[in-house]
Amino acid sequence: MPPDLDTIARVMRDADCLADHATVQAALDRMADAISTALHDTNPLIYTVMNGGLILAGQLLPRLPFPLEVAYLHATRYGDALHGTQLDWRIRPTQPAQDRTVLVLDDILDEGHTLAAIVERLQADGARRVHTAVLIHKLHHRKARPDMRADFSGLDIADRFLFGYGMDYKGYWRNAPGIYALKDH
To answer: Is 3 helix (H, G, I), strand (E, B) or coil?
Structure first.
């Protein structure tokens, strides 16, 4: 049963904006510069993690001025829940990673279990090197590995329930034009 749309609209009205559109765009520019410097001559295969990485990919890829290939996968621990559960591979990697430099794009590095599992899978598939890029690095000490960070990240954000720019609230608001946090959460 779909959630009540009045409740979904109220979530946005009551949310705290932690990073507005301009702040996110500046972060994307910085990420694109760093990725371009590191990967411009590697013929990378860019994997977008669905669904959260979709907005990031759509906004970041046009900023990368070098040849690259794009593919996708879908692995999640959240679904429509507010807390992670067991990893669910909905769509496994769609392109061969053998002997490739790979960049994995995702919306957020929260605890990092999903991203770590994706990296392990691509390494097992024979990728030469796997890099990671996330729009949001969530600040807390519950990472899958101590001091875990993506190779490229846009913004460091407080440990709250976030939505917008790919991150969702119960399947909604991935399209929000900034980074928002649930009120009192």
So the answer is: coil
What's the fold here for domain 23-159? Rossmann fold (3.40.50)
- What are the structure tokens assigned to 50, written together? 């669905």
Residues 6+ apart with CB under 8 A from 26: none
The pLDDT of residue 79 is 47
Higher pLDDT: 75 or 103? It is: 103
- Amino acid found at 120: E
Q: What is the CA radius of gyration of the chain?
A: 16
pTM score, whole prediction: 0.91
Average pLDDT of the chain is 92
Q: Are 92 and 152 in contact (CB under 8 A)?
A: no
Q: What type of residue sits at position 16?
A: D
Helix (H) or strand (E) holding 62: none
